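[job 4471] stage=fold_predict status=RUNNING
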Amino acid sequence: GKGGLILLNADWSAAKTWISERMDKEVVADNVAAKLNRFLVEPFLPHEQSEEVYICIQSTRDGEEFMFYHEGGVEVGDVDAKAKRYLNPIGASPTEAELSAALLTELPEATRPCVASFLSHLFQMFTQYHFVYLEINPLVVKNG
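[job 4471] inference complete, writing structure tokens
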């Protein structure tokens, strides 16, 4: 992966070894140095690149901004330039219909309700746990 910070196609034993080799070691990314002491391990879901999307929710002065791009993954590129955006006003909760209309128009119509529901629930978690930034890339969407 980018920056050598992603391990792919590994079993649990290989993942533990990879983590132990990096635990509490300093890493430099984008001119910022820090020690790694938290790791996220997730199972891989076999999928096609066309099933990857990008989602970000971030707090701004005016509310929470959703950014969504229908092509996610390691090679997503400049999402700031190409993502669809939806600014949710402070104190409001977006409806699934609003999220779908603003962000999901490039997805197959059959997939939109599932993704809109996911985004709605993701937003609830974002606010409940006082996140200021949350990015998922890729989010794999299979069969709606």
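[job 4471] summary: Strands lie at 26-29, 32-35, 52-60, 63-69, 84-89, 133-140.
[job 4471] exit 0
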